[in-house]
Amino acid sequence: MTGEAGCVLFLSHPKVSDLRGSCASVVIAVRLGAFDSCRYAGSMEKRRPYPSDLSDARWKLVEPVLSAWRFERRGRALDFGRPPEHDLRDIVDAILYVDRTGVQWRYLPHDFPHWNTVYGYFAKWADEGVFTQINGLLRRLVREKEGRDAGLPRV
Questions:
Q1: How many angstroms separate the Cα of 64 from the Cα of each of 9, 46, 106, 149?
Q2: Annotated domain spans of the chain
């Protein structure tokens, strides 16, 4: 199963729950060493990478979920307004930087998008269940890699 197929499944059947406790587990799942750690490409050319940035392999797992979220959100707005000006990978890298370093949002380095923009995406993704979708996808991929049932663990 590919990451793209898993993302479509999660987006068509979102399970929104209380997200305040699951956001940290998303960061932990993204940092799992189960995937290749290729160095950066794409939008990363304009700044030096931070140790908290996603590798290309990890970005390939997360990007379809975030791109589908952006596409769906633009569709609900009837394609009015300005097109998005920030790269989603830069937004994710900034969120991971805040999580990893513990820095306050307002002290986000200037080579990331403005802190208000990054926090806005973080809050929207938390409220709309995007972190839950990513966490479920990554959990399923890790379970499949370990040869276990990809479904949710039984309680």
A1: 11, 22, 28, 23
A2: 22-33+48-145
Confidence band, pLDDT 50/70/90 cuts, at residue 45: low
Task: Tell me how many degrees the CA angle 88-91-96 measures, rounded to the nearest 5.
Answer: 125
Tokens 């990809």, located at residue: 150
Q: Is the pTM of this model over 0.90?
A: no
Question: Rounded CA gap, 143 and 123, in Å?
Answer: 28
Tokens describing residue 40: 């950066």
Q: Cα separations (Å) of 155 from 55, 104, 152?
A: 33, 37, 9
The pLDDT of residue 135 is 93
Note the pLDDT of residue 145: 87
